[in-house]
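Quick look at the format.
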Amino acid sequence: MSVKKIHILGICGTFMGSLALLARELGFEVSGCDENIYPPMSDLLQEQNIRVNQGFKKTDLPQADLYLIGNVISRGNESIEYILDSKLPHTSGPAWLSENVLQNRRVIAVSGTHGKTSTTAMLTWILVNLGFDPGFLIAGRPKDFSVSAKLGKGEIFVIEADEYDTAFFDKRAKLIHYNPEVLIINNLEFDHADIYRNLSEIQKQFHNLIRTMSSEDLIVFPSDDKNIEAVLELGVWSGKSEFGSKGKDLNYFEAIKKDHSSLKFFINKEKVEINWNMLGEHNARNAMAALLALHHFDITLSDSAKCLETFSGVQRRLETIIDREELKLFDDFAHHPTAIEETLRALRARYKDNRIIALIEIRSNTMKSGLHDKALLSATSEANLVFWKGPDENQLGNLVNQSPKNQNIIDSVELFAEELRRSIINERDVIVMMSNGSFDGLADLLKSKL
């Protein structure tokens, strides 16, 4: 049967929303549905005139030739039960992508616990600027492009490769579907506690992907990550390109400014110095991985690194919302202790004498499990004040009680936004919101009130 209409369940996830753009570009009529509809993907889908229904009622499920099932959908979902009972054609997003988009493409897959979206956007920006016209799928909203995914006419396709499960009927990691020529593993830590019991299970997923790669393919990784090292010790049959620190590795970077807004990159004794708009060592590491991946395609460091000077970043990755002399407000996607710590360290390097106020929503399944509670207090050490929001009052209370002088709870974002404006903010404060969700619209509230 010829497929003309595709309906995507879970379309507002950053991956599935980007998939919708590719499907439409291929000529399919695309619609979707989701429970939680919020920016940035909701805005992008609206701008692209892709119809999105609220919720998963079977009465709202449109007729389609194929249903793409997001990994947020579980058995018991009303629409899923109807699709299964009616034996309607369905598949997962990653499987559809592999069959319809990635065939015969030279795939750069960007994986790891942190930095995937930014690294994918960096790679895409460099390739576009150098005239390669790549295909790409960025699980976020890049500032340098009007869309998060595009087919492209060139042979290279850059994809953000998530280790989360594929679908309720395929518990393998999404990345197993992508057949990369170059695999970037930025870093590796335990996450997704709702899917994996321990770090070893995640490492096994990466090993399974590496087992599919040819001897001519390449794995790019930092030399100082012991968890990645443990994966590679299970077996590697492809080339390896690692980066690390001066004096130990051929490939490394050096900060010229403490906040890493000015730095030098070194690849095989070639050196390039750049000044760019990004902050933090984590972004320098992301860039280093991107530059090494492109080196595989015979793109020189002098050509690739200079493109980063005009790279604007990704929405909600330390994104500036308010930039006045007396007040700075940033929005960030950090939702893991390591990412929170790196974000705050980057801000402290830039604003060493300012008071930093961190607003953190405990939203991811791993964060809500309490697994990271001990690490969260040390992760926020660079902040002068910390305000927590989350569904578990006991968890929030325990966090605050361990350091009651500078730890606080947000009960209502509306009341908090007003309290922040009236009695908390001082002149020259730096405020950063950190959440992988909407934070109940806090960004818009603060933008309007501050």
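Next, a different chain entirely:
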Amino acid sequence: MSSRFRVTVRLRAWQRHALEDWGQRQERDYLAVATPGSGKTTFALTCALSHLSHRPHRRVIVVAPTRHLTGQWADAAARLGLQLEPDWSPRSGRLPPDAHGAVVTYQQVATAPTGIARAAPGAFAVCDEIHHAGADRSWGEALATAFADAERRLALSGTPFRSDPTPIPFVCYEDDEAVPDFCYGYAEALADGGVVRPVRFPRVDGHMEWRDGEGTSWEATFAEPLTHQRANQRLRTALSLDGDWLPTVLEAADAKLRAVRHDHPGAAGLVIARDQEHARGIATLLWQRCGRRATVAVSDDPTASQRIADFAGSDQAWLVAVRMVSEGVDIPRLRVGVFATTTTTELFFRQAVGRLVRWTPGLSEQTAWLYVPADPRLAAMADRIAQERRHQLSPRGSQEGGDGDESDAEAALAADRDAKSEDRAQLSLFTALSAVPLGEPADGSASPAPRGGERP
């Protein structure tokens, strides 16, 4: 296929600087870390265009986290004149002759690395959200096999990441921390203006009661220090569909969304749920308590990608998902979120925040809100992002301090890493007894919608 491109790509300042830096490097591998919503896709595709302009017969292969994102990458490429096939099967071993390349998932790479390897010699490879290759050792090995003979390998991530137990191919490490060749953070994006939105984090405390797997009853608020196992049980209790905490937070978030929609009529909300059953239950609560019919997007539904696409182009108010919308999905009208999952890693949390920060041209005020449990681990993560926001948005000379202690934050993160070893058998016997919210969430003071029907 011809690789003569006559397109003009308008780049942001960071994209221009990163493109220049990438072009000057002689190494095969390049890691760009750029905050969600800042335009990593456009940057990577511009690098691909530059590569093909000098090597017109080479191919481009993009690896994305999910099937939904393969279509999103293909659409973005098409707008720049690049034809990338999102439905190509690596098992065929040959790329379509009428396309510049293809988009595949990490799962496809893991199951058919040699098929991709046959198509990849001399190719320009893009690995989007490359930390996914560290999910399992076999995934990293498959990625290394698939692109061993690629001419250039561009890795992307929305946030810095660690090696954990499985080092990721094509990435350099220093003290177990991935070392990016180019980094563009949330604070820098806020300072540049017109790139990302500021995000606020209303936190909701509560009083939770539960019975653990051994039959022992417990009760605690989020303010009380607990072991990591008890903290996980407390969070799971707060998010129970049968308690009062979650419905109250959903009502507060919906009230905020209705207020936002006065000035941004197409604004929408996102709830990130614990699992698929939880997601469907949350959709029921949104209808019963707020009069909202929500779109539910879960991986078991073969129409989930189309549901997300339809939601993105509609004016429907709420989307409920588990992980399908946690990273990469481009829905700029999302302005309000509810973090209703028991996943408490910083990488996942920042990716969730990234769903709300995408800038919409033409709107004067674009603050976003993510409602979170007042769990100390989540509070520490929110504090760090809030400090980045205040550092860039406060008047010069402001001495406003942080909301959290760094040592507490590190302890919370360490506890979260330890929580991965929690006894699953104990969790299966766990019973949530009650969850009652304490106080009003900040920034959630608008009155709830009348029940019984859809509201603006």
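The domain at 13-184 is CATH 3.40.50.10810 (Rossmann fold).

See the schema section for token definitions.
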